[in-house]
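Batch job 17 of 40 flagged for manual review because the log was empty.
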Amino acid sequence: MPDVSLTLAENVVASPWLYLVLFAVAAADGFFPLVPSESSVITAGVFAATGEPSLVLVIVAAALGAFAGDQISYALGRAGGPRLYRRARPGSRRRAALDRARAALAQRGGVIIVVARYFPGARTAVTLTAGAVGYRWRRFAGFGVVAAVTWGTYSALVGYLGGVAFERDPLKGLLLGFGLAAAVTAAVEAARFARRRRLAAGLAQSAC
């Protein structure tokens, strides 16, 4: 059974339609986080180690799709933003949350937009919120390019490294690729948690 699945996967990645599929999946994931964009790009990267598909084209397709999806998510937030503010009464929790989001994006929007792209669900929430609170589109698009290119490159290279390590056994390459992606994600989350702890400790000391 694994051999049949592997043969099917090899036939799919050899098709020129693969790049369009990667673009579509990455774009849909921008506003519908249940779509498995990371796993699709990593899988394509694993097989790119064998020479087919092209690693460069995998990165380009993934990055273009990610950028397009983020722009759609931003536009959806922008369209619904005025309604959210009308429903959020001054002094309410919803209004306070919107105001905090606006302030956070104004202070460190670039970091938030780029980092959020690496976390399914978080990227959709951030891009929707950026549109809803009226974050400037030119700045959003500029940071969006950085986020999409780095995300596409990272996802494809993680798979590619797994494919190179297990050139004759793509299944093990896939497992290694997913393992590397999970390890990087865990490391980033650990760093963010440690940073929040330090900030909380600093605030507590200041209060004393």
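Reviewer: the log was empty due to a logging misconfiguration, but the result itself is present. Confidence is low (pLDDT under 50) at residues 1-9, 199-208. Unflagging and moving on to job 18.
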